[in-house]
Amino acid sequence: MATVITLKLQVLKNIGAVYTKAKNTELNISLFKGANKELSFLAEYFHISKQQALFLSIIYVLNYKGRRVTLMDLNSYFECNPMKLLEYSDDFIQLYEKRLLLKKNNNYKHSYLKLKGVDEEFFVNEIITEKILKSEPIPDVLICIQKHEDIFSLVENLYNLADQRDDHEISTKELFEQTHRILEENNHLPFIEKINFLGISLEDKYLFLFVLWKFFDGDGDPSVERTFKLIYEKHNVCFLKIQKVLNKENKLIQEGWLETDDENFFNDVNMKLTEKAFDLLNECGINLYNKDSKHKNHDTIIKPSTIPFRNLIFSDDEAHQLKLLKTLLMEDNFKNTQERLIQKALPKGVTVLLHGAPGTGKTESVLQIAKATNRDIMKIDISASRSAWFGESEKIMKNVFQEYQSYVKNQTLIPILFFNEADAILSKRKEGFISNVSDTENRIQNILLEEIENFEGILIATSNLTKNMDSAFERRFLFKIEFQKPNIAAKSQIWKSKLPNLSIDDCDLLASLFDFSGGQIDNIVRKNEINEIIYGNSVDVKTLLEYCKEETLNHQYSKTLIGFKNGY
User: Fold this and answer.
1) Is residue 249 a part of any domain in this protein?
2) Residue 447 binned pLDDT confidence (cut-offs 50, 70, 90)
3) How far apart are CA 492 and CA 37, in angstroms?
4) What is the DSSP string of 247-289?
């Protein structure tokens, strides 16, 4: 213990002695003779020359007094000719390269401070004090290379290098040199090991980890312009780097690790991590979000176990097509089909359009197919994707498909991407003079067309108005199943299935009198259930007829009902 204390005291004692002996010496040769013993000790401890030990000691003490030190401060301390200090410029450079000294450029604008180094403030690396107080040796190159226990503290360390570069404490070259050392020292972290094998440059590694820290920090997607200005001190290099990102020439963009906003002006463009990047993080045990909860803002994950079974009644043609679709989506059939399509170099995605009048069972068909095939549904709320904010709708539409792909990777069975009531995004694109709203809708449709073209999962869309559908969507859908309003026989079966206590004759009567869809019949059944809950009994046929009359707002069946009731 005594040896440890002696080392610490010796270092501090020798620094103090040099500080005292050097004051007002004009940097004469006699200074080095008079302080030879102290300078020799410090030179050996710091692995530097005696001249360098002199300047380090003076700056150390002045820093301890609470200020950074400029060349003007050193001139005043030594009371020497300013040119005298320039004779030792190489010593300052070596101290700086060894990271014993750090510096900050204040960027003074005064005309008399244009010479290199005049406006720099020097301060001793704080690691020196830590080493001295712990009586630990000083390494040959004093770079603060810390072995991190987790990726979060590591990327924060790297991010702080950009702040140092922005404060002119380090150069761009030094930023990347330190990044290289930090990554090498922390290759034990699985994510850093993966990063080192991505085949990207050191500069791109730093950029990727910079964007990752911004995500960790919750500070939003970083601006391309601001990020590169932080990293690169030379304006021409900074501009070229920005252009490479905007032109999709940067390798991180090309290989799908980062993506940018589609903004008109480069100073508005932000960068963000892609789903591919998040998947890499997940592979390394870094789970940044719950995949299910990520979708809750504009879609709903529906689990098949939560879907109640319903027996749907369709015409023979509709039933045949739906049975084929359900059979296809059974897992063994689906896998075999995709394998065959791949062998034939055909698109392997299954895209389905269910179209027809409202209330004919389109949405319920999707739910029942999902239940029968045990597949999750990612249900998309189209109204939410038509954001009132100009430009946001396109981003949301892209995100829908990105999030679906992310969700697929976490499921045993490929889920169904379900666009319910998709008329708004399937309608004909506007031509000629169009408004901003129409232009946005056109761009949403273009994105949707492109995504469906390359789609590899299961997509089902429902639409009520196919006459206004853009023809470009027709070939994108593999299956197009039309839902007709049920005929009298089908409607009678629907009435019987929903109200089993009714006689066949009563069901036929209701079916012949009212051209109701299954959804409208459901409304009648719900009123019957409410009556049963409140009054404790089922309604009779006369009351059902009244409910049917109320269901038709234009009362087109009034005369028929009056005549029927009088004769009943």
Assistant:
1) yes
2) confident
3) 111
4) TT-SHHHHTTSEEE---SSGGG-BEEE-HHHHHHHHHTT---S
In order, the DSSP letters of 511-565 are HHH----HHHHHHHHHHHHHHHHHHSS---HHHHHHHHHHH-TT-TTHHHHHHHH
505 token code pair: 């004759």
User: Pairing between strand 350-356 and 479-483?
Assistant: parallel
- pLDDT tens profile 156-192: 889 988 988 888 778 898 889 889 888 888 888 888 8
In terms of domains, do 437 and 499 share one?
no
pLDDT at 293: 43
Which burial class, exposed, middle or buried, applies to 118 when counting CB atoms under 10 A from its CB (0-12, 13-18, 19+)?
A: middle
Strands 101-105 and 120-124 turn out to be antiparallel
492 shares a domain with 476: no
Which of 87, 102, 133 is where one domain is finished? Answer: 133
Tell whether 505 is covered by a domain.
yes
Q: How confident is the model at residue 118 (pLDDT cuts 50, 70, 90)?
A: low
Q: Which domain holds residue 212?
A: 151-288
| Number of domains forming the structure of the chain | 4
Query: Is the domain of 62 the same as that of 29?
Result: yes
Which H, E and C letters describe 86-137, residue by residue?
Answer: HCCHHHHHHHHHCCCEEEEECCCCCCCCCCCCCCEEEEECHHHHHHHHCCCC
* Residues in a beta bridge with 482: 355
The CATH number assigned to the domain holding 50 equals 1.10.10
Among 483, 502, 525, the domain-final residue is: 483
Q: Using CA atoms, how far apart are residues 124 and 118, in angstroms rounded to an integer?
A: 18
Question: For residue 293, is it within any domain?
Answer: no
Region 73-95 average pLDDT: 88
